[in-house]
Write a structure and sequence with these properties.
By secondary structure, the chain is an alpha+beta fold. Helices cover 31% and strands 21% of the residues. It has one domain. Bound molecules: zinc ion (2 copies).
């Protein structure tokens, strides 16, 4: 479940288009043939009639609107697993500049969380073996839990390390927008922090985010 948001000024009549705070996108080698909306399947309480944000059409990215990511992936011949393995999943997060009120997208490679299974299996296994070998039940349980925690930490660390080194060019290309593209301020925040920012129309610091639907 994801929310659908809108930026609305308390001082003038400015309101933005509707948008999700974040979504996944698929990286294609070729330019996508059709434009996908990020709001397909969303339940909206208000019409999507506000001012559109400046769009930067990315040469490789197709948005995967929530909750039908699967369907869009399949249309392009991918599954979540394959897209993740090939470094094609991109998390796009809507950010806002606290200094000038510009809304922009921040993108980074995203990998499906993996490695839960070995940790889940190893804990009980170690517990069972210790108990079988004559350890007291409390020691077997503690040993099992500790093993679980150790393995999950190790697997996560290894996955992160591996992912960080994979697809370096793609990661670098996506990591371009870290500051505000308009005023270059580094004072940026995720869009759903509730602090008001300057309105693009009246310039008063009265532009706030409201929830207007779910997807
Ligand atoms: Zn305003
Ligand atoms: Zn700015």
């Amino acid at each position: 479940m994801s929310t659908v948001l809108r930026a609305k000024c308390a001082h003038c009549d400015y309101q933005s288009e509707l948008f999700p705070p974040a979504y996944l996108a698929l990286w294609l080698d070729e330019a996508p043939s059709e434009l996908e909306t990020t709001l397909a399947g969303a339940v909206l309480n208000v019409p999507n009639a506000g001012v559109e944000f400046e769009k930067v059409q990315h040469a490789h990215l197709v948005p995967l609107p929530h909750p039908s990511e699967q369907g869009t992936l399949e249309r392009y011949g991918y599954t979540h697993e394959r897209a993740s393995r090939e470094g094609r999943l991109v998390r796009v997060e809507r950010m806002k500049c606290m200094a000038c009120g510009t809304f922009f997208e921040r993108k980074q490679l995203y990998f499906l969380p993996g490695g839960c299974e070995p940790s889940l299996a190893s804990g009980p296994l170690v517990g069972l073996i210790s108990w079988f070998l004559g350890a007291p039940i409390w020691a077997a349980v503690v040993g099992g839990v500790l093993t679980f925690l150790l393995v999950i930490t190790l697997v996560e660390w290894m996955t992160k390390r591996r992912n960080a080194g994979l697809f370096p060019e793609r990661a670098a290309e996506l990591a371009g927008d870290v500051d505000c593209p308009k005023c270059q301020s580094a004072n940026i925040a995720p869009v759903d922090n509730r602090v008001a920012v300057p309105c693009p129309k009246c310039r008063e610091a009265t532009l706030a985010i409201e929830t207007v639907g779910i997807s």
